[in-house]
């Protein structure tokens, strides 16, 4: 009769520490990627708002139309844009603040580290998206 292999306490601790390290690395990567992508996504939402308000008088109604366009574009990018953080200027510029919470497996469960998953960015954009590539 053979005795099945039972891992030692040392093996179990090593496995637990390794798992926590891997989870921390994955969560750190998730937070990093979220911090890198939110400014671009917020800018795109701003461009959508500026395009919606183009050639319109700067009125409350136009601002609401622009805000709805920004909110709709932001929702497709998993961003939240709030009305109090949205401004439409008479020259067509738009300032907005966009928020996103990084998807994590571990960080959002630790209250002392939860704030690391929240990403917020404020951007100001003009009417048109700048041309990245110019053909000469």
Q: In percent terms, what proportion of residues is strand?
A: 15-25%
- Rg (C-alpha, Å): 23 Å
- C-alpha end-to-end distance: 81 Å
Unreliable residue runs: none
Helix content: 40-55%
> Which geometry do the CA atoms define?
rod-shaped
On the 0 to 100 scale, the average pLDDT is 88
Instruction: Describe the largest sheet.
Output: 3 strands, antiparallel
Strands of the widest sheet, in order across it, are 1-2-3
The number of E-state strands comes to 3
Structural class: alpha+beta
List the secondary-structure elements in sequence, H or E: HHEEE
**Total DSSP helices:** 2
Q: Mind explaining what this structure looks like?
A:
Helices cover 46% and strands 18% of the residues. With 136 residues, the protein is α+β, with helices and mostly antiparallel strands. The protein has a 3-stranded antiparallel beta sheet. The longest helix is centred in the first third of the chain and has 45 residues, at 9-53.
Topology:
Blueprint: H1 9-53, H2 60-76, E1 80-88, E2 94-101, E3 118-125
Antiparallel strand pairs: 1-2, 2-3
Give a summary of the structure in a few sentences.
The protein is of the alpha+beta class. 46% of the residues lie in helices and 18% in strands.
């Amino acid at each position: 009769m053979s005795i099945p292999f039972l891992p030692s306490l040392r093996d179990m601790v090593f496995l637990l520490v390794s798992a926590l390290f891997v989870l921390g690395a994955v969560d750190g990567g998730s937070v990093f990627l979220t911090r890198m992508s939110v400014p671009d996504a917020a800018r795109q939402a701003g461009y959508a708002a500026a395009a919606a308000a183009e050639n319109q008088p700067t009125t409350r109604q136009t601002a609401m139309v622009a805000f709805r366009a920004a909110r709709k574009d932001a929702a497709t990018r998993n961003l939240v844009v709030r009305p109090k953080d949205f401004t439409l200027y008479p020259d067509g510029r738009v300032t907005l603040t966009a928020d996103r919470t990084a998807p994590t497996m571990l960080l959002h469960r630790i209250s002392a580290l939860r704030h690391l998953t929240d990403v917020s960015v404020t951007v100001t954009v003009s009417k048109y998206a700048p041309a990245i590539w110019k053909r000469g």
